[in-house]
């Protein structure tokens, strides 16, 4: 499992021989074990007696087993057995020959971009499966991702899983659970009511550390981390690693947006953001592919309300968006075929990075920055058609005077209008109480 191993002072539990202690987790000690019935090597997590005496923690321990048992996916560590009949409850999981992603980063530092995407795509696939059956992990981080010697990544430690539509999460309202550097800002305040977008945030934060070798909010305590999170006060990963692609930089910042509404709505969408291609039409990702020259059809209305249809390549349309030639992109619909279903342009990963940016958390009394595309001058139908098809007309490499570029960077505008001191005091009080509880009182790996 990648940790330093020691001989186990215990001999066995149930019908499992304990061979070596391999890790200390927040909910117990993990051993490399052997099933005496068939000789299979397994991982055995044993809960200490003082924790087993707490019915809430014991229920959470059982929940980890039940959640993993529901999942049958190659990128989720499989649950094999559970027993709580003695003073030493234990659960048995598949043994992964390898090490945690956290340990690997600590040993080797930042990962190459293509390798990081390959690993995070596997984790996202397992997490997507959990989301599809209504489970939210709530503690996605490098230490909870195991990478086998064959390169297979598996998500582990489902002790903080909650069911999206039930109260199985065993969390008191107002208490945050998770790891401060990787958890979404809303999880600090109330882990009970979070949705899958908190896992998307943690997935982005995990990728941040993978490609930079640094924590997203290093040298920050829980309260300071929360304050930075809600204002999107995050050093862009590309500032740490200049060679990182613009797309991956944007995808991470969007996933870590303080405003959950600005994040991807699914793990599938997060991977699409990273690659710029739909996961429904391409093979599993192994890197960041280059833009292609596939044709698209766009439908929009001009200033007189007349509807126009034009076509263009991916490259030409992206260039037109950057140069502000398509007007308000919110009014543009797109399709692969002329007679097909036309959907909003931002629904397509090939163009979404030019239309969506990260946004600070909405705070009472503060004006929200506009994270959508600005209202730009519109090209005429003839001009737009020529530009999109690339057959004639204006040189797309030149930006028209007075037409701003659509920024690929994050929006750091803090918004107009000051926040009342009373509101800040209330927010600080809530943040301090919940963040301190999350950091000091909740068991951590």
The backbone outline, from C-alpha atoms, is elongated
Low-confidence residue ranges: 165-176, 288-292, 364-445
CATH class of the largest domain: Mainly Alpha
| Proportion of helical residues | 25-40%
Number of strands: 16
Question: Could you give me the name of the CATH homologous superfamily of the largest domain?
Answer: Transferase(Phosphotransferase) domain 1
Distance between the termini: 14 Å
Percent of sequence in beta strands? 15-25%
List keywords for this structure.
Transferase(Phosphotransferase), domain 1, seven-stranded antiparallel β-sheet, 3 domains, four-stranded antiparallel β-sheet, disordered C terminus, 33% helix, 16% strand, 445 residues, 14 helices, Phosphorylase Kinase, domain 1, alpha+beta
């Amino acid at each position: 499992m990648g940790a330093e191993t020691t001989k186990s002072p215990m001999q066995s539990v149930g019908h499992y021989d304990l061979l070596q202690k391999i890790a200390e987790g927040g909910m117990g000690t993990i051993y490399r074990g052997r099933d005496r019935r068939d000789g299979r090597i397994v991982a055995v997590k044993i809960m200490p007696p003082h924790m087993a005496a707490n019915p809430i923690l014991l229920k959470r321990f059982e929940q980890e087993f039940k959640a993993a048992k529901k999942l049958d996916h190659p990128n989720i560590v499989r649950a094999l057995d559970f027993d709580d009949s003695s003073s030493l409850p234990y659960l048995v999981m598949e043994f992964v020959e390898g090490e945690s992603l956290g340990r690997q980063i600590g040993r080797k530092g930042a990962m190459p971009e293509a390798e990081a995407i390959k690993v995070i795509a596997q984790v996202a696939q397992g997490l997507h499966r959990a989301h599809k059956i209504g489970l939210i992990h709530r503690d996605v981080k490098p230490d909870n991702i195991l990478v086998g010697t064959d390169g297979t990544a598996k998500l582990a430690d489902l002790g903080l899983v909650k069911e999206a539509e039930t109260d199985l999460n065993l969390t008191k309202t107002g208490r945050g659970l998770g790891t401060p550097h990787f958890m979404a800002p809303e999880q600090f305040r109330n882990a009970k009511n979070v949705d899958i977008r908190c896992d998307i945030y943690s997935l982005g934060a995990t990728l941040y550390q993978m490609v930079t070798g640094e924590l997203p909010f290093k040298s920050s305590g829980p309260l300071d981390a929360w304050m930075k999170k809600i204002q999107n006060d995050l050093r862009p990963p590309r500032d740490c690693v200049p060679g990182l692609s613009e797309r991956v930089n944007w995808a991470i910042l969007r996933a870590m947006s303080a405003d959950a509404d600005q994040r991807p709505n699914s793990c599938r969408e997060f991977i699409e953001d990273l690659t710029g291609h739909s996961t429904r039409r391409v093979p599993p990702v192994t890197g960041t592919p280059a833009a292609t020259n596939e044709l698209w059809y766009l439908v929009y209305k001009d200033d007189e309300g007349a509807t126009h249809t034009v076509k263009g390549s991916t490259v030409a349309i992206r260039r037109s968006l950057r140069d502000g030639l398509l007007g308000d992109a919110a009014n543009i619909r797109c399709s692969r075929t002329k007679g097909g279903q036309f959907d909003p342009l931002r629904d397509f990963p090939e163009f979404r990075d030019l239309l969506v940016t990260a946004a600070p958390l909405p705070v009472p009394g503060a004006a929200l920055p506009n994270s959508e595309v600005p209202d730009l001058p519109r090209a005429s139908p003839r001009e737009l058609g020529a530009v999109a098809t690339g057959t004639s007309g204006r040189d797309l490499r030149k930006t028209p005077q007075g037409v701003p570029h659509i920024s690929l960077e994050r929006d750091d505008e803090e918004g107009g209008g000051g926040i009342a001191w009373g509101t800040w005091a209330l927010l600080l009080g809530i943040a301090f109480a919940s963040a301190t509880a999350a950091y000091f009182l909740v068991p951590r790996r």
